[in-house]
Prior knowledge:
Mean pLDDT is 75; it is low at 36-46. The N and C termini lie far apart (92 Å). 37% of the residues lie in helices and 29% in strands. The chain is α+β, with helices and mostly antiparallel strands. It is built from three helices and seven strands; from the N terminus they run ααββββββαβ.
Amino acid sequence: MTSATTHVRSMVMRSRGCVRAPLWALVVGLFVAFAAPSVHAAGDTPKEPAAIDEQIAVGTELVATSDVTLRRAVIVKGSRVSVTKLSRRGGHLASVDVELPDGYVLQRVAITTVRAFFRVAETTTAP
């Protein structure tokens, strides 16, 4: 077998792999979209993301709804953090910087993480 034939054969093998990879990704994507169970329990209605985003501003206190690890910081359920900075991308809230009770600031916490593990703390007004 000549060198040119081997080169052509390896190019054909590579091109078959390139066609199969996107097709495989499409099949997996469709499976995940339609066959995966829903993440929300029956009767559990998640809040609209836009409504949660409107409540978050600089100075807003967030309460952890479950234990979560953000980078190396472990935040336990019920802990309060404070929003110090909002980052927008394309006009939508993309991430926030949060200050932990010890003063350490976690930068660029994704808004999806905030929606999943935090809620806006209820403010109590003195009579």
